[in-house]
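Title: [Solved] IrrE N-terminal-like domain-containing protein 3D structure

Original question kept below for reference.
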Amino acid sequence: MIAPMRPRWNLAENRANELTQDLSAPPIPVYEIAESSGVNVVFVDFGEHAESVSGLCDFNAARIYVNRDDSTERQTFTMAHELGHWLLHRDIFINDPDAYPVLPRFAKPDSKNPLEKEANKFAACLLVPNRLLRPVKDAPVAVLARIFGVSRLMMEYRLKNV
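Solution (posted by the thread starter after getting help):
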């Protein structure tokens, strides 16, 4: 499989929905979902890179590394984002490891990379599924963010895209 030129929005959203279809209330247990998807989640000290790197997916080791110093909300998003890479992009890596290097998730990500866009879409849909957000979308943003266990910024994004 060759890396997509454009993000596959439907693929990302559908895969996230498959993983949450049996859940009836937030917050989404992303750690458990990741572990049950065949990847280990490891919280690590990124040392001198702790300010800029939130996490990464290591396809060879079947691990998601998450910055232990980040806020809980950022860690949750990082787990979901890296799980997106694991589920959506593993075939690309297996077929051509040189074409898909380990991509750390930076605090300021590359907004042009279609693989990063897919992983972001997957994470947003996994953590805040449309079917759970629609019935409560008129509640205050801060309340929804707390209930879903995500940042206010992430919740604002989801509300604009529901």
